[in-house]
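re: ur question from earlier - yeah i can do the single chain one, its not a big deal. heres the input i used so u can compare w yours
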Amino acid sequence: MGKILSIIFLIIAIFLFPPAVLAGISQNAIPGDSLYPIKRAMEKGVLTLVSIHPTTKAWFSIDYSGRRFSEATRLITKGENIQAKKSLNELVSQTSEVASAITTIKNQAQKRKLLAELNRSINEYQEGLTQAKQQAIVTSGAGTTSTTSPPLATQPTQPDATLEPASTPQQSPTTTSSLSDQSIGDNIEETIKELDEIEETLKEEEGNLDFLEDDEGDDRVNRGRGDGDERGRGDKIEGKGKGRDD
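and the output i got, formated as tokens:
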């Protein structure tokens, strides 16, 4: 019934609300919300429009990667671990796609800015995910309780028999956190590692840019020296010519 109502709401929203209003009210939607499909559809439409220029597309893609991060952390906080795992996977895949797209940009100045921005964003993602993981551990630990097992029954006392001491109550901790809580922590850790790998590729690309810029600088210096030598030789020849004329 809930899915049917969500579909009906979507149909009504599409026909009654202008796109700008839909974009505004769906901005903070997360996976599982009725407006989330509208949010993703509009993102896809915008990316299609800006794909004409790779630099513009890259900037928008970085912003959308940040949205996946925000959605994942909110889902983790709410304990919706299944949806959170999907969002974490999307965060990695979308960030990886952005990194690959940046490497194809020919304008070195724009490429350097995009690399720096994506690096900054990845650091932000990693810090936020680390905090989310710690919060998940704290929340999981809060659900840990201890139960006391009843004392073992003792044998009735017999005349002239050696008395057996009653066993002491045993404390057996019972953890109420589910395996899903542990799994989301592992998934967060894996996401951080994958983001590390993406960051390494960005650093390599920055190194390539530095090498190219140094190489171009050397070429300019060599060309300048060559032009100076040519002008020097020309002046000498011209001086010799004047000497003969004199």
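The chain has seven helices and two strands. not sure if urs matches, ping me
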